[in-house]
Write a structure and sequence with these properties.
Layout: H1 16-26, H2 30-62, H3 67-116, H4 119-124, H5 127-169, H6 171-177, H7 181-218, H8 220-225, H9 229-282, H10 287-328, E1 350-358, E2 364-373, E3 378-383, H11 389-396, E4 404-409, E5 412-413, H12 419-424, E6 426-429, E7 438-439, H13 440-445, H14 453-463, H15 466-470, E8 479-480, H16 489-502, E9 507-511, H17 519-533, E10 537-541, H18 545-550, E11 553-558, E12 561-566, H19 568-574, H20 577-594
Parallel strand pairs: 3-10, 3-11, 6-9, 9-10
Antiparallel strand pairs: 1-2, 1-4, 4-5, 7-8, 11-12
Bound molecules: thymidine-5'-triphosphate and magnesium ion (MG).
């Protein structure tokens, strides 16, 4: 089983390089950040003021029975609480707003980037992984942007103010209280290291669990067909057990860390009562100060207890951003030329000159292929499976770039033309048909505004799809569900023909599906293909004898080489590869037709 290495990125809890890049996305929202930080400083200041007010209330007013003074202090306390509540509202709202805006920007950027990527990228990357980048990984950054960055400031401020107030009241009790600090720091340090390891383990196993699930859900029919359910369940359980163990390991450290922090905070409280209480008895300290100290301790330990959660946010965010940036940095892109040539009206002449091409470096699937197609001609490519027929098509549209040689359209190298311009003039009907969710109509015009309803219907009529479409309950507005699962293979093919025709391209590429369909549909499709090819330069990867016989020229591919070229009769008389292919594959079709 392939292990998704990208998903196993451990991610440091803090990586300055990544953070710098992430902050780049925050830049447009600087105003929000400044606003949030100011609010945070105020909130962070308001909290630590309260225990100090309590101390004053006790020492100066309660003990002296000063009702008026007590009332004023109480009013201050309530006022500070109210103010904090109001500020908290703005803080939550604006930080979330900022977070969501940043996430939206990022999401758009990633999607745009994914669209730019060459097919080579999608060949080697599982779909699930790309989807996870755009959804989960981006989402996990939300917390970092919305609360994480700003929270760090507020925690630091709170701790700072607590120190100031404590030392202002009494320095020796402060030192006694803070004597637990070194142990706390050490415990936190240990916890961090252990959790980091456990987290890595957990992620690794989760990635495996996910990819296993993904693969087996997409391949469910095979699993069920070969009754492999029980076995697969066992394997899934095995991977699941590993994940569970890893997860429990991680939980274990949390389970230890929380009580340790709790114990330390109790010790601090004990110290305050013992040492502070003693001082009160000796008259060197007021009872109000002791109570204020108890409150400060509580306040001081809270951010530390939350630390584990924040640590999690950071760790997840760093790992996610690393994966995201890996995707954004992926340069598997078919580049446009710097000063592109115009294409103008295309006549449709295509020239392959000594073309060499490999998907993987060095493993050539096309070797020194040269041929010319004149405007309006139809050529058929034939050859055994894996001979390189589909690859030729992939090159004309520049889905991939060739390694050696040149491909020209109307005498212009396709590398010198913007790929968008190039593709405007080419329609492709692929071997396996892809339908988008939407309606029949939107699958024909692909929501291009330039294509009118009349043109859609016209195209459908021409390829003979109009009849079955009109018979659907909603006609052209019938919804296409689950990639067209409700349509037959033949119907899908006709829709894809109509799509190609609606765009009225000068060059048409057709990868004929090999799957056989009933004779009636076969006849419709055959006629549709004839109409499709009329009046344009066409390249057909042909499996139908009729298409091959009607072609102006037949190219015979064999193991990546163009071995024979000519008309049906010419090639038959050569008694070469085509002759053999004909004997083996196409002759039967002729026999069938005569039955
Ligand atoms: P194809 O060009 O796909 O062969 P074909 O279209 O002639 O075969 P079929 O009749 O079955 O459709 O493949 C040529 C070689 O290139 C083959 O060894 C597989 C390899 N290949 C890739 O590595 N990546 C790809 O995306 C494609 C399309 C092919
Ligand atoms: Mg093919």
């Amino acid at each position: 089983m392939s292990v998704d290495r990208d998903d196993e990125i451990l991610g440091k809890a803090y990586d300055s390089q990544l953070m710098k890049r992430l902050l780049g996305y925050v830049k447009p929202y600087k105003k929000y950040v400044v606003f949030a930080i100011i609010l945070n400083i105020v909130v962070a200041g308001l909290g630590p003021v309260r225990p100090f007010l309590t101390k004053i209330a006790i020492d100066d007013y309660i003990i002296t029975s000063d009702y008026e003074g007590l009332f004023i202090i109480a009013a201050f306390l309530v006022g500070s609480l109210m103010m904090q509540a109001v500020i908290q509202y703005f803080l939550t709202y604006y930080t979330q707003l900022m977070g969501q805006k940043i996430i939206f920007d990022l999401r758009k950027k990633v999607f745009a980037h994914v669209q730019k990527l060459a097919l080579k990228f999608f060949d080697k990357t599982p779909i699930g992984r790309t989807v996870t980048r755009v959804t989960n990984d981006i989402e996990s950054l939300n917390e970092l942007f919305s609360s994480g960055i700003v929270m760090v400031f507020s925690d630091l401020f709170i701790i700072f103010w607590i120190f100031v107030f404590m030392f202002f009241m009494t320095w020796d009790l402060s030192l006694v209280t803070l004597s637990v600090l070194p142990v706390l720091i050490y415990a936190t340090f240990l916890f961090r290291r252990k959790v980091r390891e456990a987290y890595r383990d957990e992620r690794k196993h989760l990635a495996r669990l996910n990819s296993y699930m993904q693969e087996h859900v997409s391949g469910m029919s095979i699993v069920q067909l070969f009754t492999k359910e029980r076995e697969e369940r066992k394997r899934y359980a095995g991977i699941g057990t590993d994940y569970r163990t890893a997860k429990i390991n991680a939980v274990f450290y949390y389970a230890i860390f929380f009580p340790v922090v709790e114990i330390l905070s109790s010790i601090a409280i004990g110290l305050i009562i013992w040492y502070g209480g003693g001082n009160v008895l000796q008259g060197t300290l007021t009872i109000g100060s002791v109570i204020a100290f108890l409150q400060y301790t509580e306040m001081f330990f809270r951010p530390i207890r939350d630390l584990s959660e924040k640590y999690n946010i950071m760790q997840t965010a760093m790992a996610s951003s690393e994966r995201l940036f890996n995707l954004l940095d992926d340069k598997t892109i078919v580049e446009n030329p710097e000063s592109p040539k115009q294409l103008g009206t295309v006549t449709g002449k295509i020239d392959f000159k000594n073309v060499w091409f490999a998907y993987n470096k060095g493993e050539y699937v096309l070797k020194d292929v040269s041929f010319s197609i004149n405007p309006g001609e139809t050529i058929a490519i034939v050859g055994a499976t894996g001979a390189g027929k589909t690859s030729i098509n992939n090159l004309i549209t520049r889905f991939y770039d060739i390694d050696k040689g040149s491909i020209c359209i109307d005498g212009k190298d396709i590398k010198s033309i913007r790929k968008e311009t190039l593709r405007e003039h080419i329609s492709i009907v692929l071997q396996d048909i892809f339908l988008f969710s939407g309606t029949i109509k939107s699958n024909i015009n692909l929501d291009y505004e330039g294509i009118t309803d009349a043109q859609v219907i016209d195209a459908a009529k021409t390829v003979g799809a109009h009849d079955f479409i009109s018979n659907l309950p909603n006609g052209y507005d019938e919804e296409v569900k689950e990639k067209g699962a409700t349509l037959s293979v033949g119907q899908k093919q006709l829709i894809s023909f109509a799509r190609a025709l609606a765009f009225n391209p000068q060059i048409l590429i057709l990868d004929e599906a090999t799957s056989s369909i009933d004779t009636e549909t076969e006849n419709i499709i055959q006629k549709a293909i004839e109409k499709l090819l009329m009046g344009r330069t066409s390249i057909v990867i042909a499996h139908r004898l009729s298409t091959i016989q009607n072609a102006d020229k037949i190219l015979v591919m064999h193991k990546g080489e163009l071995r024979e070229m000519g008309s049906h009769q010419e090639l038959l008389s050569q008694k070469g590869i085509y002759y053999k292919l004909y004997q083996l594959q196409y002759k039967d079709q002729e026999v069938l037709k005569t039955i």
